[in-house]
Amino acid sequence: MTNKTKKLRIALAGWGTWGHVFPIRSLVEFLKNTPEYHENIEHLYWFGAKKSLEQNVCNDLQTSNRENILQFIPIYSGKYRRESYRKSKLKNIPDFFLFLLGCFQSLFRLLYYRIDVVFCKWWYVALPVVLAAALLHKKIVVHESDTRPWLVNRIASRFAKKIFTGFEWALAEWQNIGQILSDDIVIESYPKFSSKTLILVVWGSQGSKRLYQNILNIIEFTPDISSGYEFFIVLGLVNNDMLTLFDKFPYVHTYGFVSQKQMGELYNICDIAITRGGTTSLAEQKLYDMKQIIVPIPRTHDQYDNAKWYVRSHNDIMINQRDTDFEFQLAKAIKHFKWYKKVTQQKDKKKIIAHAKKIIRDALLGNRE
Can you give the pTM of this predicted structure? Predict the structure, then answer.
């Protein structure tokens, strides 16, 4: 156990989408609710981009906690674009200087706040923090969610004391502990909602309006769709204008933004998810034994690799939204599952979710060398 006379100051470095920011939030909530926190941790610091999703989430955590345990540290960073377009290459020039500025900022702030350990979750805002920590010989712990490690985590792994993955074969020498999920999604009841096949559609906001339109077309123009299915469609904040388009169908339930608890309730009752290929969402859905029709975001290789893993491991379905007959393929996949009902396995979801976070906690505190 860590020497109790020296409590640790831990920096959390992560940026990006809901699927990468919320695992850090979940880790913070887990840490502060364990006895080991008060015995071993003096303070937590979240490094990220200013006016970002992670700053908003950090502010929410600060507001909901009476204890002053968390502080947000804004830094600059630049993204290295590997696209061949000239415009992308030109953007790399100013971003290089932003990256250097972020390294100097991180170096100063790690010293100023006397940081002992850095936890790196994902993407380019984390890299200046990791490099500064390596220069100062701080302990670095890394978690990679995807099947194929991203550039930042491949670099961070060279300096890390502990490296964890969400998949068993992401890198052979890394330790697979699964995904970092939130306790908020845990629903222990097993309700009987309907004898129909219940389909959850959750595509998020990134380029998804056309996909929701495809679903609307399928619901409206596919014969007998009402007889075997009930749809639960989460549009997110960006697509709220489509709510009224779905309201005319009695077997369709639409939502704008939903909390993680509400999402857990939807996972609990639904049989199938029509979803993107983000690791957190896929793992949450599979925790509830759902079949998945996965439509990866086209411009990212990681979601395709994640989807392929689920197709191989669970016989789920992957569809490329760039295919000219995408809507036909999606309708065919939905018809394939007509009258399908998932087989719910009795499992201790809280224990499963806690597994990864306990291992990370122990690595941060130095219990497992």
Answer: 0.88
